[in-house]
Design brief:
This protein is mainly alpha-helical and 278 residues long. The chain is built from nine helices and five strands. Strand 3 and strand 4 form a beta hairpin. The N and C termini lie far apart (42 Å).
């Protein structure tokens, strides 16, 4: 009975939150559908806790709404409800790892690949990597939002030159604080999970925090080097194309903030796998 009540609570809570976020225009309908599918895979297939995802969703949406009031050169989606692309860019890796853990626990990976993954603690590794990927997303999200709302004039993370507030690749002290808080907000869940991969729960906590912070830094570097930036009316580089009316001044048009987020998550996942193997 206790298990049934726990499952119902974990099922009803995200549904209630998603309905509220759509009503408050923090999530679009497509974003809510993507988030619901993500919750289903995590909760019912992988049988992981849904609360790290809920924490990220609420923190990211709340910070995004606060940031929407800031006047800066944000991208075209700034201030709008988060759509399915944004949900998948930040939570897609988490969902894929949950699916892999489910396939492993169901015996499908062994029957298809012939690998005895229980020797490698495959499902547990997937769970830890999923939390790391979410910490990266949360750290990057809060870093951007803190920097735009409370940070001063940001500096280019590579050259150190001052940039317009809100342009990808700019960093500030407030942004670094946001990145640290974002990593901690997700890493705290490893203290209530049973992992036996790397040392104690405290060690894992700091590992997740460090990876989250590093992911935020990497996101800024990729944003400077590759994300599309457009010339505004004053001749400054900004992230928003204003409906396609502005001229591309730097980067690649197809490299949006969502693309940078997804690539950052993949690269940090590779680094995390290398670290765990080492």
């Amino acid at each position: 009975m206790e298990i049934i009540i726990e499952i119902l609570m974990q099922l009803l809570l995200p549904i209630i939150i998603e309905v509220g976020l759509v009503k408050w225009r923090w999530l679009s309908v497509s974003g809510a559908i993507a988030a619901g599918f993500l919750a289903f895979v995590v909760l019912f297939l992988a049988k992981w806790s849904i609360f790290p995802l809920i924490t990220f969703l609420v923190l990211g949406s709340l910070a995004g709404k606060i940031r929407a009031n800031a006047k800066d050169g944000g991208d075209a989606k700034q201030g709008l409800a988060r759509d399915h692309w944004q949900v998948l860019a930040n939570g897609g890796i988490f969902m894929l790892l949950a699916m892999l853990a489910f396939l492993n626990d169901s015996g499908w990976l062994e029957s298809i690949l012939g690998i005895h993954t229980e020797v490698l603690r495959f499902s547990e590794t997937c769970h830890l990597l999923a939390i790391i990927s979410l910490a990266v997303s949360c750290a990057d999200t809060l870093s951007s939002d803190f920097g735009r709302v409370w940070g001063g004039s940001p500096r280019n993370i590579i050259t150190g030159k001052r940039m317009l507030k809100g342009v990808s690749g700019g960093v500030s002290g407030a942004g670094f604080v946001g990145a640290l808080l974002g990593g901690v907000s997700i890493a705290i869940f490893v203290l209530w999970s049973e992992f036996s991969l790397v040392g104690s729960s405290t060690s894992l906590f700091w590992i997740v925090v460090v990876f989250g912070f590093m992911g935020s830094v990497l996101d800024s570097v990729l944003g400077v080097l590759f994300q599309a930036k457009y010339m505004d009316e004053s001749g400054h580089l900004v992230d928003s194309s204003e409906g396609g009316t502005r001229t591309l001044g730097k980067g690649y048009r197809w490299v949006t903030n969502d693309v940078v987020n997804a690539v950052t998550g993949i690269l940090m996942l590779v680094v995390a796998v290398m670290y765990l193997c080492w």
